[in-house]
Write a structure and sequence with these properties.
Blueprint lengths: L10 H18 L3 H10 L2 H24 L14 H13 L6 E3 L6 E5 L2 E5 L6 H4 E3 L5 E2 L4 E2 L4 H9 L3 E2 L16
Antiparallel strand pairs: 1-2, 1-7, 2-3, 3-4, 5-6
Helix pairs in contact: 1-2
Length: 181
Amino acid sequence: MATTPTTTRSAQYVAWETQVAEALAELCGCDYGDAQAIIAVTPDLVTMSWALQERAKVAAEKIYAASGASSEGAAPAAPWTLRQFVTQAKALLRGHPPGTRLQDGDAGGYFFMQGDAVFGCLHLNGDPEEDAVDLDDDLWDAARGCWEGSTPEATLSAVLKPVFLPPRDGAQEQPVPTSPS
């Protein structure tokens, strides 16, 4: 009788495999299941990305050591770009039913998808047909990584600590409760 070999993988490696599948799905524009199928027929993909991650950690430690800094006290991350913000908003909204909206972190409005584009509405009870605005570079403070007149913390809270709103039905809006993360 033939036995199937079993491979024990660490929880960290399994978590990495999940991250690779999520990144692959976003990169290819496919769903998570399709990304898992791609990984299943190309198992070296996860192994190579794991090795690359490990090498990057070693290289970063060497850079920090050479500069006299430590990775524990690393410099803050570079400011987010508008593209990063929109990509994250899309990823969040795609995971919810059509019409679901993402509450803006500080302006009292929300973000929504129409087709493959993300738009903003400046008021929580605003009508997407009448009050929608394009998310363009003129509204984004590239040096600080946030909307003009806002702060990075407030702007990014929309995508880092998302609050989802149900599709509009004309009633006054109440945020959808989310589970604590």
